[in-house]
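User: Reviewer 2 asked us to show a designed sequence for the structure in our supplementary figure. I'm pasting the structure tokens here. Could you produce the per-position amino acids so we can include them in the response letter?
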């Protein structure tokens, strides 16, 4: 069986479409299609089929083949790391994905310090509004604000912190009479969005007529004077544009989870980055 063709099958699984798989492999979609057809001709097995909506998907045989190819890929990576000494060296690329406010407000400000201590490690920091897939190898590590729904035998998940919240206003207008800044209705499922909505209704406070989509947007809205809102103290206390209004904290906690590939967790660079991330979230904000 041609290993190169199997790599194209794996790339299609992780990308979801021929075009995206082609982009990741640096070839055109025709090449991907031709390689997948060659794999099916060689084995006599249908790995792909069209769904009722017309999309190209994996058959059960294709899914099983992908599982075996991933195991083979992991074994080859481990062999290469052992032979080259990479398993024990603090060098190489580490891809980290999280929501924009975590990347921009917590990771990037500490990245210079990390780079000076660990010059051999290259951090690729991705601000993602969606939860990227670890099983599909879209990232090496992911920081999630909430218990992860995905997992599996090859995903290691660890709770590394719990975010406390407080009510903040713009620093130049410390008033509890400010309207509440709520989230966009599409994000109403978020714990802090529900808390602000419920508290705003119960206190009959005015509501801002601007509803940002995400946490970073809410922070910017408060800083711009559009109102007050409940924000994570770890992030808000570092922002000089914001002021905490009340000493009492709302009963609002968000867990922070670190996800990574179980088969990479023993790598020196992964251990170093994991320790760095846990350290960032363990800092107690000065209140």
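Assistant: Here is a per-position design you can include in the supplement:
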């Amino acid at each position: 069986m041609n290993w190169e063709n199997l790599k194209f099958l794996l790339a299609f699984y992780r990308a979801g479409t021929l075009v995206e798989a082609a982009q990741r492999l640096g070839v055109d979609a025709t090449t991907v299609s031709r390689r997948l057809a060659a794999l099916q001709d060689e084995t006599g097995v249908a790995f792909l089929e069209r769904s009722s909506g017309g999309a190209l998907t994996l058959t059960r045989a294709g899914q099983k083949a992908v599982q075996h190819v991933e195991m083979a890929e992991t074994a080859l990576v481990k062999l290469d790391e052992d032979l080259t000494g990479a398993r024990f060296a603090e060098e190489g690329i580490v891809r980290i994905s999280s929501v924009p406010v975590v990347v921009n407000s917590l990771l990037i400000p500490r990245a210079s310090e990390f780079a000076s201590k660990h010059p051999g490690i290259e951090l690729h920091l991705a601000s993602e509004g969606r939860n990227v897939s670890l099983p599909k190898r879209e990232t090496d590590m992911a920081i999630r604000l909430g218990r992860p729904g995905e997992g599996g035998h090859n995903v290691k998940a660890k709770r590394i912190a719990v975010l406390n919240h407080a009510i903040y206003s713009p620093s130049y207008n410390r008033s509890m009479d400010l309207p509440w800044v709520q989230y966009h209705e599409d994000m109403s499922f978020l714990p802090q969005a529900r808390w602000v909505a419920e508290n705003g209704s119960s206190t009959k406070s005015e509501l801002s007529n601007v509803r940002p989509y995400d946490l970073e947007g809410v922070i910017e809205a408060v800083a711009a004077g559009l109102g007050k809102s409940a924000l994570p103290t770890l992030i808000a206390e570092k922002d000089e544009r914001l002021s905490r209004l009340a000493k009492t904290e709302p009963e609002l906690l968000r867990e922070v989870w670190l996800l990574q590939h179980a088969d990479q967790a023993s790598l020196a660079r992964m251990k170093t980055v994991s320790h760095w991330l846990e350290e960032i979230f363990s800092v107690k904000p000065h209140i």
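For the response letter, you might also mention the following. Strands lie at 48-50, 56-58, 92-98, 121-127, 141-144, 155-170, 229-232, 242-244, 253-261. Residues 185 and 211 are 8 Å apart (CA to CA).
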